[in-house]
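Q: Got a minute? One more chain.
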Amino acid sequence: MQPIGANESMSKKSKRSKKGHRSERDSSLDRVASQPTMDDADGTADHARPKMKRKAYEKEMRRLQGELVAMQEWVKATGAKVCVVFEGLDSAGKGGTIRRITERTSPRVFKHIALPTPTEREKSQMYIQRYVANFPAAGEVAIFDRSWYNRAGVEPVMGYCTTEQTEKFLEQVPAVEKAMVDNNIILIKYWLNVSVDEQTRRLENRIDDPRKIWKLSPTDLKSYSRHFQYCRARDAMLASTDTAWAPWFVVDNDDKKRGRLNIISHLLSRIPYEPMRPSDVAMPKRPRPNGYVAPALPIRWIPTPF
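A: Always. Here it is, folded:
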């Protein structure tokens, strides 16, 4: 992956700041330079770090998932509205991260939003309309696995929209997100980075693993060959839509274990939840049969080969 900010499209940043898109100079995009970067030539990570061990990863994940439950209870109790956006290249680890976030939480509170290709009716609507319908209500956390930012990434790169449509989107979306925040939605946006080497390994793994082949679409293979076109689109998107009220947070996700832990810990730090009080729940007495005897019914038990 090219360094964030290395592309020529980033020059648009200063022009857009004059229009009020960036009212604070300390937004997350200004701090990206301090984060790990990717080598320009082949997209390999320029920082060697050992992969995290499974035991240490699971121990920390267990703790963080407990904190997510505490956050969930706070969201329910206060009626908070949280919207989390995950964007990034194909195989960057968006889906796996979201699964870990929702693994131990209630689907009534944490809602995984992964919209399919728009219908003909939806194509005739205002572009953001079908996404607005999935914004969180009170007591909900809406997690978008790709979002309205398709118009800034996959659509222009794959030729699904015009350059004019993308430019209009980039101009208008900061105001939409300002309206979200002004209506008390906590909006958090993540971009997941992955190097060419790691993306290659993950896509090849999807081809070889029957459990993952469903993740591989014709679009994934086409987009892989357009890796650096996505880099340019990403740069333009960050330059135009990283605002004081809805900043982008960039994640180096070559190591998915570290990436997931970093994302969840950061997400928790952005929500003003309170730790759960120790539970005072006690189990009731063990139930007694009180004369119940199971009848001799022709029950169809499933086979037990294991």
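A: The CA atoms of residues 90 and 224 lie 8 Å apart.
Q: Perfect, thanks.
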